[in-house]
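Regression test case RT-17, inverse folding.

Input:
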């Protein structure tokens, strides 16, 4: 659908309040400032060659069938489950790995499977014992960027964010401001709305300053709300494949750190290059999530195309077919795949460069094996639903968000900000009126970043509590197929989104989902008020 927003100078409207900084440092802007060029070699960044740092794929796992994570499912309207965040060694890519952080010893964590209207009763124990292990920092060697008014929390501080879920941001629900210390636990107790979109979501920690480390180390799991695209009549009874994409580096049986993106490995449900079986003519629904700390995946399947039916948990109102899908950090897609003639086909990422420190290499993620009895293909209709009314409804507020980064020579630290401010949890967020619709213009100000000693790189925008619709890019109307909660914003790009706030009051955040950026300040508060 093409949609032109009402004409107004967005640069003169109210801005979202942002705030101060915090971090567990890395290479990005700091290293640019130290070496003065983005062409500096990996050796200059203190990154060891791959053959000294990252182990290769064990031959025994190369053709192992895809396994899906264990499932904790609701029953009788309630999901009652326990998650234990632990630092015990776990199995990843066919070998026992130390130095990880996982839920219940699984990589990825257990899948939480619920229905709209369910009550969530989830106890999360913090058993992240770091007394005998080093903090799994994916970016060692970079200077910390601590806010003057804040202290970086201990690396084993914990909470839980239900990414993409339209639920309350208040305590006992999706409250990302709480902090559970090592040895403690927290009881989540909240209800999923009865009209919640069915689809693919995920959960992970969100303690500002340590998120990057914890997710890189393995603290992430999928969350499935039943319904949505899986209930399209043409897909009734079709096989579903649940897939979690995640980056890792392994050295000498342990989680490796300081590995350049191009030299990292990529797991699919904790496996390396598994096989996925499908019959000729069979149509399957693949539900894919990027649960890594910062990798980008440009998905492709040799000899096949994807028919996309859902994005970021919500069924599209119009399906579309494509050869590739860009999946930035935090994003999810659900699409159909129909097997063609018998044979083996590579499911791969084609590689993507998100900036000077984001050269993500091409890699084979799995092998789809077409074999067996001939099946009848399923055809998904183009029209799946109707767009929400707020897409064409009145706008009560327009806001301008400028994402930029730089390097502070006085403190020798990088910084990442929104509207010139780095994150501070205690700062009041800009207030948004309940029951209204707003337009936000998100600007990746790469010129300012370069002028202040930073670099030009992508920023995947993510907001909690509510999803949004992208209506324009660089002033040009774009066709919207559905809602989303993550949108990638290229250097110099301006993306206009429209967002409704129909229910749930409380304070929450929006941020860049490259988690090093988030931990270093590229996050801001907002508050929905009656």
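Golden output:
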């Amino acid at each position: 659908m093409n949609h032109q927003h009402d004409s107004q100078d967005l640069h003169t409207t109210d801005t979202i309040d942002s705030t101060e900084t915090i971090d567990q440092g890395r290479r990005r802007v700091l290293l640019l400032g130290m070496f003065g060029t983005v062409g500096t070699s990996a050796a200059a960044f203190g990154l060891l060659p791959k053959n000294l740092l990252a182990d290769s794929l064990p031959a025994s796992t190369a053709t192992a069938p895809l396994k899906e994570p264990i499932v904790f499912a609701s029953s009788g309207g309630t999901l009652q489950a326990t998650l234990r965040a632990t630092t015990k060694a776990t199995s990843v890519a066919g070998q026992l790995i130390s130095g990880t952080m996982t839920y219940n010893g699984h990589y990825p964590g257990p899948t939480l499977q619920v229905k709209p209207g369910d009550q969530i009763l989830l106890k999360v124990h913090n058993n992240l014992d770091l007394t005998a292990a080093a903090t799994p920092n994916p970016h060692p060697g970079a200077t910390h960027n601590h806010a003057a008014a804040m202290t970086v929390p201990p690396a084993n501080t914990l909470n839980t964010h239900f990414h993409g879920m339209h639920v309350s941001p208040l305590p006992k629900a999706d409250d990302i401001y709480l902090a559970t210390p090592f040895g403690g636990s927290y009881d989540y107790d909240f209800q999923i709305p009865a009209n919640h979109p069915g689809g693919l979501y995920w959960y992970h920690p969100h303690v500002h300053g340590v998120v990057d480390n914890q997710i890189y180390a393995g603290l992430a799991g999928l969350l499935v709300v039943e319904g949505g695209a899986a209930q399209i009549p043409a897909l009734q009874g079709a096989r579903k494949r649940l897939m979690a994409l995640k980056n890792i580096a392994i050295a000498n049986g342990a989680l490796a750190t300081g590995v350049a993106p191009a030299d990292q490995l990529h797991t699919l449900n904790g496996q390396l290059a598994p096989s996925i079986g499908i019959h000729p003519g069979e149509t399957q629904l693949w539900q894919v999530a990027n649960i890594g700390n910062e990798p980008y995946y440009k998905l492709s399947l040799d000899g096949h195309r994807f028919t996309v039916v859902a994005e970021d948990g919500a069924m599209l109102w119009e399906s579309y077919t494509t050869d590739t899908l860009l999946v930035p950090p935090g994003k999810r897609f659900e699409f159909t795949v129909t097997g063609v003639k018998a044979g083996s086909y590579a499911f791969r990422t084609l590689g993507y460069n998100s900036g000077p420190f984001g050269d993500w290499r091409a890699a084979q993620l799995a092998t789809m094996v077409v074999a067996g009895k001939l099946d009848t293909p399923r055809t998904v209709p183009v029209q799946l639903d109707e767009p929400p009314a707020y897409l064409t409804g009145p706008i009560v507020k327009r806001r301008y968000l400028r994402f930029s980064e730089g390097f502070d020579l006085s403190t020798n630290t990088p910084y990442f900000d929104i509207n010139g401010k780095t994150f501070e949890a205690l700062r009041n967020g800009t207030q948004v009126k309940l029951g209204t619709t707003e337009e936000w213009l998100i600007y990746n100000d790469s010129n300012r970043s370069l002028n202040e000693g930073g670099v030009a790189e992508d920023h995947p925008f993510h907001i909690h509590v509510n999803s949004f619709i992208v209506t324009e890019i660089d002033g040009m109307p774009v066709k919207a197929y559905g809602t989303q909660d993550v949108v990638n914003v290229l250097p110099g790009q301006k993306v206009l989104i429209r967002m409704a706030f129909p229910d749930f009051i409380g304070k929450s955040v929006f941020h860049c989902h490259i988690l090093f950026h988030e931990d270093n300040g590229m996050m801001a508060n907002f508050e929905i008020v009656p």
